[in-house]
Amino acid sequence: AYSSTKEESTGRPVGRYPVPNKKDMPYDIVELMEEVEMKTGFLPNVFKAMSHRPAEFRAFFAYYNAIMNKDTGRLSKADKELIIVATSVVNRCPYCVVAHGALHRIYSKQPALADQVIVNWKLADLSDRDLAMLEFALAVCRADNITEEHFQKLERHGFDREDAWDIGMISAFFAMSNRIAHYVDLRPNKEFYTMGRTP
Description:
The protein is mostly helical. The protein folds into 2 domains: 23-68, AhpD-like (Single alpha-helices involved in coiled-coils or other helix-helix interfaces), CATH 1.20.5.810; 75-193, AhpD-like. 62% of the residues lie in helices and 0% in strands. The model is unreliable at 3-8 (pLDDT under 50). GO terms for molecular function: peroxiredoxin activity.
């Protein structure tokens, strides 16, 4: 299934680097890919692209898992996806904006919000809490000088220091993802564009 870098629909490659044949991939990576494909109905291209470097694939998805699937803290799945969308716009990453916009629509059940954030987060239908969260995430994303004031502002909206770490870490990890997607020329799967748009 993963023998080619071709995207079936457009004939465009998934990215600049070759995707190894499934039979040449380490078993644990094939297993993870099959699990994801079964769960979502397709295999997101980031898995194909990262399979070019098995050791980095494992480290990347282990870290992803540690920050995105932890069940402590005050960030919901939708909150995390919104952070990724807002910061990936600043980092000009079409893959992450499209993929995580889709996940945000699914988790939040708000089909328009990610699109609003993509165009102009300050004009989006966000709560004060959401605005505070994105403001901190974007300060980290832009490598602004982070001051005590940033943390105090978050605290006023119910986020403690550990939540600030979570917001900052998601922003930082996806800054890396955005840059990887950039130089490998990672293309969004066509499925992402329509996911979660209609009930």
